[in-house]
Design goal:
The strands form 2 sheets. The chain has a 5-stranded mixed sheet with strand order 4-3-5-1-7, covered by helices on one side. Strands 2-6 form a two-stranded parallel ribbon. The protein contains 3 helices and 7 strands, in the order ββαββββαβα. It has one domain: Lysozyme-like (3-Layer(aba) Sandwich). The protein is an alpha/beta fold.
């Protein structure tokens, strides 16, 4: 059964520059948090490899309240060497992300693409989720401007 998709959400794995987080390690991390496996549908490695980590037919476990009608994409990285949020995407990851989102938008028309941080609550109620309202920095770059 095909799910209705309204949202594509981009995440980072919060992995420091110079460190590796394999798809298997990501899966273990999510299982240790009580999930039934990796919560994202796709994982983009530093070399640009795109790994399907959860079937699209299954709801994700990546943004509370938004999983039923979304697709989650995570890239390996998101922290600088000191552990601070940073856009650490390699050129290969940037290209892979653009290509994947393009393909998904062809399949799921009229779908919004955003970063995890963009789904934070609008605390001041002005209709805009501003940086001071972000629950997380993830994915550590402005998705709308980057795609």
């Amino acid at each position: 059964m095909k799910r209705t998709i309204h949202l594509i959400v981009v995440h980072c794995s919060a992995t420091r520059e110079g460190c590796t987080l394999t798809p298997e390690a990501l899966d273990r991390c999510h299982r240790n948090r009580g999930f039934k496996g990796t919560g994202y549908h796709y994982y983009i490695r530093r070399d640009g490899e795109i790994v399907l980590t959860r079937p699209i037919e299954l709801p994700g476990a990546h943004v509370k309240g938004w999983n039923a009608h979304s697709i989650g994409i995570c890239y390996e990285g998101g922290l600088d060497r000191d552990g601070h949020p940073a856009d650490t995407r390699s050129p290969a990851q940037r290209a892979a992300l653009r290509g994947l989102v393009y393909q998904l938008l062809k399949q799921y028309r009229n779908t919004r693409v955003c970063g995890h941080r963009d789904l934070s609550p609008d605390i001041d109620g002005d209709g805009v989720v501003e940086p001071q309202e972000w629950v997380k920095q993830c994915p550590c770059f402005d998705v709308a401007a980057a795609l």
